[in-house]
Amino acid sequence: MAAELQQRFDTALALHRAGDMQGAARAYREILESHPQQPDALNLLALVEMEGGRHRAAVDLLRRAVSVRGEVPQFHCHLGNALQAGGDFSEAAIAYREALALQPHYPEALTGLGFVLARLGRSDEALECLNEALRASPEDFFALHNLGDVLADKGDLDAAAHAYRKAIAAEPGAAELRIKLAVLLREQGHPAQAAEQLWAAIELGDDDLRAHRLLGSLLRLAAPSAYDPDLEQRLLAFYETAAVDHGDVAEFATALLKLKYADDPRLHSDSGHGFVFDTLLVDPLACAVLTRSVNADEDLERLLTDARRALLLGDVEIDASGMAAMSVLAEQCFNNEYVFAVSEQESARLDALGAALASRGHPGSPPPGDVQRSVLLLGMYGPLSALPTAAELADIALEDWHQALQPVVRRSLLEPLEERALEAEIEVLGSVEDPVSRAVRDQYEANPYPRWLEPAYRNPASVYRIVQGMFPGFTPPAVLNAPVRVLVVGCGTGRHAISIALRYADAEVLATDLSRRSLAFALRMARQLGVDNVRFVENDLLNVSAIDGRFHIVECVGVLHHMRSIAQGLRMLLDKLHEDGLLKLGLYSERARAPVVAARERIAELGLRAVPDDLRRFRQLALSAPAHDPLRRILAFGDFYTLSNCRDLLFHVHEQNMSLSDVRDLLAGAQLDFIGFESADATLNEAYRRRYPEDRSMRDLSRWQALEEALPEALPALYQFWCARRGTG
């Protein structure tokens, strides 16, 4: 190579090594202007193009390099890498084999060939290549990573985990691989080990929040064994992270707090308001849990109920510096929709407090301290938007309220008033004529369900990839690789509809519900979150024909079992489903909801009605029941801990539970094939695989029924599953 050309190469390589890709590309192109077929410049410029994601340009450059100097194995290997990155696995395999013909046992080429062979479904050949690569380079990160992937796809989870661990040892900063290992460990039934990998991934940097969300789904099913201050700080950081569902970790965090204060006798006292005010409500993690989640712990409910009563009745005095603690308590009461018990004495005091506030007229701005305290006390027992003085209070600028009170004013007063205004914007398609539909609508108008604080954000991906990831034994219809139309029937307050609008790439979501109040909540949350690919309309499933067109995905979770005829509702859903579309259903489990049926029988015996006072009365009956009373089984249901959710759980006007044999008959009658259960609990699939290792597809409902009979707690109270027209996939 001439000295002048060598000097230009040295300059280009220096820029490349320094990470100045634009400068390096410019220098390589200048070389190619005078030496168009210079193979090293072609190769190195191709590497820069690949770094920038321009795989097709890299392929063109590398083909030119190979045509000039076909005897260089690295050029063929790099060509394979570029083709692989562009998804052309067959051509990539040819390029890798050319490299290996020139240089047998070439680790990078063997690793690349193993990767593409796995993608082509030739897993045994892939394993041979990857193992040969590792014999030549035992600590090669990419070979170990790919080996783990192939082993996991073949179902050899132990060997896959071993390969992933070795890859992480070679490159400890591989956050994405730690997440992958965590998913695998969760499937194996090792939640603590999975959590450690996820915490490590978060500490390395979790820009897309995937590790946070997986950790949340994992901790929902776990409990701490001992108090750990480092774990407490991790949980606090989790709560300080936006765009994740903090409710997923609420029970775990509460359990950790109880372990932290286990030696404080006031924790189990009947009158523990001192513990609440001087310890609990100044604890940063406790404040995060109570303001961002719903408490589902009976000990804490008892303490918080007592503390609220003491504040209202004047048994405890808190000065202006204690407003923050009062505000935390008020936010928790808003979160649970004021589900705590209320005594007659408290009711009388609330009436007097409300009357005194109303008699003052407009309190002025900023409002006096005694008015702010009264508003805060009233906000612990009901929404401020329901007060006769709501309009006057809303007229006060938010910043004129005490700083600690501002979150309560915003959430309990301003946002509900905004929702009332939004009701007028909700589009109506068809009328509600069916008596059962009307009764269900009236229930949700009184109690929009469910109340939620955070969407279940997911990383955007095509529906094809999402379904393929959930059900590896099922080949999704090709139409799901393109932009899709999604119909969510019975969207309630919109959490799921908004979540899938964020999760499904290139999706337009239409979400329907009977309840205008619920839809107004959903619309407010969509606007607050900046989600513009979801539209909310008021519609009864029995009038779904009023909706134009067909949809690639129809999701109907928690609706059919509230209809007079489940089969009729299913037929109407199928009328809206694209011929190659998929259907997701959610139906109540007869077996898992047996405690709910028993509780409803007790409610009927007591003559209780679906009104807040009776609902609170029954909750106290369940909370105070002795340990051996079957009624206490209802406390395990998360819906027990908020007012509207509890009403839906125990006082619903119409509900049908189903067995898996009922589900099988329902699908058979509609000419539908079962695809699989969607479950946050990966141990469910692992239990099926252990019992039926030969059935990789896991699509046999008879076997699922046998598993449920053998392990009654295995399946959830709400069956959520996907299905398709017979013969699809």
Looking at this protein, list some descriptive labels.
single chain; 729 residues; alpha/beta; Serine Threonine Protein Phosphatase 5, Tetratricopeptide repeat; Rossmann fold; 4 domains; 8-stranded mixed β-sheet; 34 helices; 8 strands
Walk across the major sheet and give the strand order: 1-4-3-2-5-6-8-7
Which CATH class of the largest domain is shown? Mainly Alpha
Task: Report the portion of residues in β strands.
Answer: 5-15%
Give the total of domains.
4
Q: Helix amount, in percent?
A: 55-70%
Instruction: Estimate the global geometry from the Cα principal axes.
Output: globular
What's the average pLDDT? 90
CATH fold category name of the largest domain: Serine Threonine Protein Phosphatase 5, Tetratricopeptide repeat
Distance between the termini: 58 Å
Total helical segments: 34
Backbone structural class: alpha/beta
